[in-house]
Amino acid sequence: MTAFELDNVVVGNDLGNLRFDNQIEIEGAANEAFSAGGDSGSLIIEADTCLAIALLFAGGDTGGSNGKGLTYANPIQTVLDTLKIDLAL
User: Fold this and answer.
1) Model-level pTM?
2) Distant-in-sequence contacts of 33-41, Cβ < 8 A, 24+ apart
3) Is 87 helix (H, G, I), strand (E, B) or coil?
């Protein structure tokens, strides 16, 4: 991940340009993109613990230090709180 609590993420869609705050920015490793078209809605998990950390909502194929694009995600706790979901272990 390249940034946490990132504000002013502007994403264009059918409704126009929408602005998001408190987002997570991710770029791919080495020469690979982190996400591709159609990945919106995917759950992002931490590899070592398999715990959910975010919900992917946007990405592009340009930018980032490797030039393969940046991905943006909502922190999972924000998603759960907004949807009034409580996960029991």
Assistant:
1) 0.82
2) 33/59, 33/61, 33/68, 33/69, 33/71, 34/59, 34/68, 34/69, 34/70, 34/71, 35/59, 35/69, 35/71, 39/71
3) coil
Alpha-carbon gap, residue 68 to 64, rounded angstroms: 6
Measured CA distances, 75 to 54, 57, 62 (Å): 4, 11, 23
**Token representation of residue 70:** 């940046």
pLDDT tens-place string over residues 23-81: 999 998 878 889 988 999 999 999 899 999 999 998 887 888 787 889 999 999 999 99
Q: Which residues of 63-72 are buried (b: 16+ CB within 10 A; e: fewer)?
A: ebeeebbbbb
